[in-house]
Design a protein that fits this description.
Chain lengths: 237, 224
């Protein structure tokens, strides 16, 4: 599969290289934070994973709109793959967050609005996967999946907005007025590098996953055709 | 436009008459709501001290849970009797079906709310009769019905049906839940309008956004 598609292969190796480079920057280039110490370094991948999670859900919603407009199953495959990737990266963000929270907040989990809304968002997309499992017909599955991806994503900004109205203890990097996490230039550069690396990795994984989903759909269609043929013969005989 | 309104009115009337003749759903919803109230009494020690703040949350949870019973049934008649096709042919525009079902579910939710509030006031000896509170619950019921009607239209066509509805609905209802509980809690605690007005605005915005999106996508729920 790797050898078939030249640009995809190239992107694959590029993303691996970038991830390794970002990892090296996190370890050796970014300075150790004064108050939090080494554990702060988990932040670079934490934030990148959270960003990619959100991006993935946006991609799913956009693919949902495109599917409803054009009725091409490739958009459904892309949306489905994006949701899977989004859940994966959201899980990464959650676990890296826990690693940070244990020493800093002295607990693995707290009912902070930021954490809670992130988890609710994840539940939305777990529900998306369950919805798809409940429908056998591929076209209906694609339609309902698209609708739910759209309405689900519409509720995400509202959920996040409402969490901003509540008092949060989660550090904010952008748009916050608190100085609870001031970054130096090297830290910003490391953060930018991880963001780019993670975004590219997501794009590559999405591409592979969507191709796989496309093949699966084809296989499913062929199987359905074959069963039809068999039954047809029985009837004729 | 006249056709459109006429269609909505006819469909709402049909559903309400159908429900009123049997009262199956309303009875079940009301009984379920009261039972949940009793469960809460044991699950959470409702001492008179913290009661005021918790009341908003309890009332809303009771309404939301009982409401799923109604939502689950809102499309079953059409689905089971194979009337969807006839319905699609009868209306001038498919959004009529969505809006009619939305209105029916909204009215059912309001009816439930009107029944639950006096019972709660009686059982817990705390008067919940206040216009602002009712206003918040009305807005909440609209958001709930708007999202719920769309989801119910899809889940009724899936294999898992009623199982799936709450799983799909509750996560996307989260802004409504948060806003209703915060706003109603503020009202019951005697807070000033400025302290909870943002939550009321959020309820309004949610209701509008979800209703508009649902109207736009509902034809794909029903037709290939």
């Amino acid at each position: 599969m790797l050898s078939e598609n030249k640009p995809l292969k190239l992107l694959f190796f590029l993303s691996v290289g970038l991830i390794l480079a970002a990892f090296a920057m996190v370890l050796f280039y970014a300075p150790v934070e004064q108050t939090m110490g080494l554990v702060q370094k988990v932040f670079y991948f934490h934030m990148s994973a959270a960003w990619v999670g959100m991006l993935a859900f946006l991609v799913a919603a956009v693919c949902g709109v495109l599917y409803l407009a054009k009725k091409e199953l490739v958009y459904d495959a892309a949306a489905f793959s994006a949701v899977e990737m989004g859940l994966l990266f959201t899980a990464i963000a959650t676990f890296t967050g826990m690693i940070w929270a244990e020493p800093i907040w002295n607990t693995w989990w707290t009912w902070d609005p930021r954490l809670t809304t992130m988890t609710i968002m994840a539940f939305t997309y777990i529900a998306y996967l369950l919805l798809r499992r409940g429908i056998d017909e591929p076209v209906k599955r694609a339609r309902f999946g698209a609708i739910y991806a759209i309405i689900g994503f519409a509720s995400v900004p509202l959920t996040f907005f409402s969490s901003r109205l509540l008092r949060t203890i989660h550090p904010t990097i952008f748009g916050g007025n608190s100085g609870d996490m001031a970054l130096t230039l090297q830290m910003y550069q490391t953060m930018a590098a991880s963001l780019v690396a993670f975004t590219l990795l997501f794009a590559v994984l999405l591409w592979y996953r969507a191709r796989l989903a496309g093949e699966q759909a084809l296989l499913e269609a062929l199987r359905a055709e074959q069963t039809e043929d068999e039954f047809g013969e029985v009837e004729n005989g | 436009m006249k056709n459109w309104l006429h269609g909505i009115r006819t469909l709402v009337w049909k559903d309400l008459v159908q429900e009123w003749r049997s009262k199956d759903m309303l009875t079940a919803m009301f009984a379920f709501a009261i039972l949940t109230l009793f469960i809460f009494n044991y699950a959470i020690e409702l001492s008179p001290v913290n009661r005021a703040e918790i009341a908003a949350g309890i009332i809303w949870v009771v309404i939301v849970f009982a409401g799923t019973l109604g939502l689950n049934r809102s499309f079953t008649a059409e689905q089971d009797q194979g009337c969807f096709d006839a319905l699609v042919m009868a209306v001038p525009d498919l959004s009529v079906i969505y809006l009619a079902k939305l209105l029916t579910n909204f009215l059912v939710m309001l009816f439930l709310t009107v029944l639950v509030i006096p019972v709660y006031s009686l059982l817990y000896n705390q008067s919940l009769f206040s216009l602002p509170l009712l206003g918040v619950l009305v807005l909440g019921a609209w958001g709930y019905a708007a999202a719920g009607t769309l989801i119910a239209g899809m889940t009724v066509q899936t294999r898992m049906r009623d199982l799936l509805l709450p799983i799909l609905l509750f996560p996307i209802l989260m802004p409504v839940n948060m806003a209703v509980v915060k706003a109603a809690g503020g009202i019951l605690a005697g807070a000033a309008w400025q302290d909870y007005s943002l939550w009321v605005a959020l309820l309004g915005v949610y209701g509008i956004i979800v209703t508009v999106i649902s109207i736009l996508v509902f034809e794909y729920v029903i037709r290939e």
